[in-house]
Design goal:
It contains 15 helices and 10 strands. It is α/β, with parallel strands linked by helices and 372 residues long. It has one domain: Alpha-Beta Barrel (TIM Barrel), CATH 3.20.20. It binds ligand FNR.
Length: 372
């Protein structure tokens, strides 16, 4: 393949660079993976309505976001175990996000620690919290606060882990299970294997400190075995304890979004976890249409964003910004940190092109008027 020019090109290269089990971990979804496909297919049904003869000689992709502007309406979303794609992945994603001026969300299940990521860049960093148990959640939140993270993203769509059959078939887990199948996958991907062996195999970076180092937490995190009793009262209590911005990720109903706002959340992320949890939900970009943020609050969305035009459509439907999950990981797998820069640049160029062609020079002016 020549120079990759689209996120899909990067996806194809990622498939060739990663061992099958790792690519499957990134790519896979729950059950029959209809949700993964539906997230993408939703964009085919949302059509743009170009306005003729608008003055579009200068375009502006920046959008207002709480008390500041984002230069692009993008956030690098949380992806656990990204070090299985490439050693140092979280640091690379954080630096690439900082270069683009967009926030990076560090997963609870990251392979680098909160403190390492804090040191990696001066960019804006958010911490995504999984409540495995209350003590660990308190300790992670405190560490994030101490390390300078000022936005907490509570993920609520993982009361239990989704059933991802690719991972079950491949026996994918941390530590890597050295099965003949896994070895066979590594043998045909020598560059990946060498890098992993050189660096030391990935582990959960946030759970290897003296405080959090216990095998049961690691196992719980691998199984994504959350405290399934966490409910609305606990959200309100977390709101009381966390002194800065709080977003709730994994909301799929307008009523739940309203309840999050009523609890004091500053924003919600409409998300079905990239189709990795419940297989048969609507696409988040379709749910978005029914959710409105009260004044001063934000609605973000993720799931299936692979084109700049997808982002434009979500903004036209009322999103304040879009989280990227798999797209940056494709760039990372293909070309490391430069690949993440390139994926962001591709989306930026596509957004700019789309804005010009639909006659909307400013991303912040997108509205339903630009949808057919
Ligand atoms: C995820 N996602 C995720 N979400 C979260 O809140 N915490 C996490 O640790 C992870 N881990 C994770 C790993 C991998 C490999 C993927 C692909 C996804 C979900 C992620 O934040 C986001 O919601 C979806 O990935 C969005 O869909 P797309 O952009 O991947 O289609």
């Amino acid at each position: 393949m020549g120079r990759p020019v689209s996120v899909e090109d990067y996806r194809r290269i990622a498939a060739r660079r990663l061992p099958r089990a790792v690519f499957d971990y990134v790519e896979g979804g729950a059950g029959d993976e209809r949700g993964v496909a539906r997230n993408r297919a939703a964009f085919e049904r949302i059509l743009l309505s170009p306005h003729a003869l608008a003055e579009v000689s200068r375009r502006d992709l920046s959008v207002p976001f709480f008390d500041r502007r984002l230069p692009l309406p993008l956030v690098i979303g949380p992806t656990g175990l990204s070090g299985s794609v490439r050693p140092g992945a979280d640091l690379m994603l954080a630096r690439a996000a900082a270069r683009a001026g967009v926030p990076f969300v560090l997963s609870t299940a990251s392979t680098s620690s909160i403190e390492e990521v804090a040191r990696a860049s001066d960019g804006e960093k958010w911490f995504q919290l999984y409540v495995l148990n209350r003590e660990l959640a308190d300790s992670l939140t405190r560490r994030a606060l101490d390390a300078g993270f000022r936005t907490l993203v509570l993920t609520v769509d993982v009361a239990v882990s989704g059933r991802r059959e690719r991972d079950v078939r491949n026996g994918f887990g941390i530590p890597f299970r050295m099965t003949p199948r896994f070895f066979a996958g590594c043998a045909v991907r020598p560059a990946w294997s060498l890098a992993q062996v050189r660096h030391g195999l990935p582990q959960f970076g946030n759970l290897v400190s003296a405080e959090a180092k216990d095998a049961s937490s690691q196992a719980l995190l691998m199984l994504r075995q959350m405290d399934a009793s966490f409910s609305w009262d606990d959200l309100a209590a977390l709101r009381e304890r966390w002194p800065h911005r709080l977003l709730v990720k994994g909301i799929m109903r307008a009523e739940d979004a309203a309840r999050c706002f009523a609890c004091g959340a500053d924003g919600v992320v409409i998300s079905n976890h990239g189709g990795r949890q419940v297989d048969d939900t609507p696409a988040p970009v379709d749910v978005l249409a029914s959710v409105r943020a009260p004044e001063g609050k934000a609605v973000l969305v993720d799931g299936g964003f692979r084109r700049g035009a997808d982002v434009v459509k979500a903004l036209a439907r009322g999103a304040n910004a879009v989280l990227l999950g798999r797209a940056p990981l494709y760039g990372l797998a293909a070309r490391g940190e430069a690949g993440v820069d390139e994926v962001i640049r591709i989306l930026e160029a596509e957004m700019d092109n789309t804005l010009a062609l639909i006659g909307c020079p400013r991303a912040e002016n997108l509205s339903g008027e630009f949808l057919a």
